[in-house]
Design a protein that fits this description.
The protein is 67% helix and 1% strand. The protein is an all-alpha fold. It has a two-stranded parallel ribbon. The longest helix is centred in the first third of the chain and has 36 residues.
Length: 484
Amino acid sequence: MLFNSYEFMFMFLPITFFIYFFLNKKRLLIASKVFLVFSSLFFYSWWNIKYLPIIIISILFNYFIGNQISIQQNINKKKLLLIIGIIFNVSLLGYFKYYNFFIENINLLTNWNIHHIELALPLAISFFTFQQIAYLVDSYRGETKEYDFLNYTLFVTFFPQLIAGPIVHHSEMMPQFANKKNKIKNYHNIALGLFIFAIGLFKKVVIADTFASWATAGFDNATSLNLIEGWVVSLSYTFQLYFDFSGYTDMAIGTALLFNIRLPINFNSPYKAKNIQDFWRRWHITLSRFLKEYIYIPLGGNRTGEKRTYFNLAVTFLIAGLWHGASWLFVFWGGLHGLALIIHRVWQKLSFRLWVWLAWFITFNFINISWIFFRAKDWDSATKVLNSMFSFDSITLPSSLSSKLNFLMDYGVKFDGLFINISAGKELFIWLFISFIIVFAFKNSMERLDSFKPNFINSFIFIFAFLFSFYKLSGYSEFLYFRF
């Protein structure tokens, strides 16, 4: 079930909302939690009920290990339990997500012919695995306060953040569910939640899905691209990914607010970043936090000398790349970001400074180019787009300009349809221009959380965003991060 589906918006969400608060009103507090867990598991299994046993087994195992860690007094036994828990989670993730990738590379290196196995990747396994690893580590550190099974299950399965995050801490969620004030409908939170949800829906359905057709045409369908097409295809995916994932996060945060739960902010205008470190403080913030707290710092962080710090950064982002998918393209993308962070650290150490506009320009273009390896299905697709962006032998201008600029033909410039290889018109430039304005000139939706008021302007924005999104809503449009 997708947030941007009729079933979710007009059936599942209102039914779940009203029954949950009805049970709370009748002081059936345990029943309301049980119902919310049941609803979340129903939401999860909507795609494929075969996924359900996997997440239930994962919850049962991690709850048991976390509980044992909390009551264990012997530090060595606590550490052993933590290691067992982490191995279980990584093995579960590795088997379902990376087994065939591992076999492919073994076959390539050895000329063996080990057969693949048919594995359906369980939905959201990367997210609920990382979330539960964080819970085990927090239990080991003594940072979790209670170990009720129902609360733990609700913490893992709460449907607004179950499928693609944000990746939350136990301490961020459970005190909110325990707060008695949150058992009562809060009309300010309802208005704010619907407002944020509508903005996220607009981002996904109207903007991201529009760019998706051009990105798909350029990466997957076109056999070649000219220089201008290469840049607009890469930018199309850059904006598609941003509006798709930030739209999902807005919808998750908005949905949670209906239940008086505040999820952590996951985006803070990342394309405004002036350097790569700033970008990772703004993009997928809860993943960045996990990588820092549970991988980078345990490796030694920046406390063990410069060379070891560079190594730690590289390893952390190689893992980040692999977490996103079982492909060397994802590993390469992670390696690029690790290298960029190392270069940034060296640059800072040498006390070099750039003009702000130039720092932004370099950062944004690095991100845009690196997304090519994140999106491409294979190396040929990636190099096709990348080569076209820097090939001055493939410049094509509109045929309407041929009479005025025909002298450029002597320099290899062609005159034809501007976007003939991706079946686009000049409206693509308009969409890119509008997206730049939205991303760079306006406050992001999260900056509106604390200042929101249900006034005329915000009511108009909500009605326009929802109705226009509803008009554009058609077919099956999955969120990009669902595949991770």
